[in-house]
């Protein structure tokens, strides 16, 4: 596989962790999700990683109707690659989590490569009052959540979505997830070139130290050789520093309000686009180029935006 020369920026617009109380910038209505997604694309994101929210209170939603309220709007205003999460919720079945992707057949989907503790309960201590009734309990109880992604679940996602020719963003929160992915590739569930998202800084996963990034990359090199592309997601305060390091290592990057609500230490981001603009400026100031959506499609061997169901 030829060496990649440009950096793909993914922007994760809203996610399923942060709640409306935590930031006024976090979008949860269809109009706001679409507007922020389009603005992020204009700022330099070639991939838009999307979750849905209930527009009434910002709670996590897997309702395909909530996706339908913003997907066509985004597609009509940008040529960015659409990536729909199959993580979506920590408390629902795998069938419910993949329903939006099965209906809309996007170019990409995220796919978590192992079960894990996944908690953000320390955030609950930061807020004395909440905008919506569901938020406090949701955040506090996350120390009881197990993010289920068994081998059976992974196989079900792969086989259900196989007819759609979707490229997966294989989310790996720890070294063992890379070995899970290797097993799945060896048994024919996924074909090269695969796209790996190294994730650092989630409570329950590997920590956000640079040494861990280097080790994850070395492990992936050993397991997959030249048959993969990779990106880095640093959660919280590690977002920009790890993205910068990844870009200098010839990797790709992911930013967005799903992963961090901040633009710098102690300062909330005004929008997803602000984070995209910052990392793009850093990447270009350090002598690298940012990939366009069509260049991202070529790098990742995607089916093209015309082959979706929205």
UniProtKB/TrEMBL annotation:
Taxonomic superkingdom: Bacteria
Descriptive protein name: 3-keto-5-aminohexanoate cleavage protein
Pfam family, one: BKACE
UniProt source species: Leucothrix arctica
Keywords: Metal-binding, Transferase, Zinc
Cofactor(s) this protein cannot do without: Zn(2+)
One term of GO molecular function: metal ion binding
Matches recorded under InterPro entries: Aldolase_TIM, BKACE
